[in-house]
Predict the 3D structure of the following.
Amino acid sequence: MRNSVLTLAAAALALAACGQKQSQPEQPGQAALPASAPAQATPDQVKALVAALPAPYSAGDVTNGKAKFTECAACHTTAQGGPNMTGPNLYGVFGRKAASQPGFAYSDALKAAGWTWDAPHIDTWITDPRAMLPGTKMTFVGMRDPKDRSDLIAYLKVATSPLPQ
């Protein structure tokens, strides 16, 4: 009986921990990566990744972009090796051919798109995916504010790219 109670208590504790976010301390000017990311970017790494983007994205606010990504996080993950969800995992999205994430069932429209993801394509895409590509399965209604899109793209660059050395 005692073992059953201990087993039940351990199971309850394990279940209680499920779904809780693992917080990472942020230092001023340092963007926190998703809890599942293996390492947190230093301020210099964040600056280098964002600076590699073309204007206006190179002036993006990573902190605001992270906040805007909460709209995307219901369908997408960003960590290396993260799962595909309703949408594909976005790790390594910059420089990746559209509809090429292994294990994800893309729409025929996106498979036929033929472009490679870069900041301008992502910007146009997140403005209104269905207007950019009729026939897409993506149901996101779009992000109208250009500054929010630039900030989101800066965050995506940091959250989905290998850290510079």
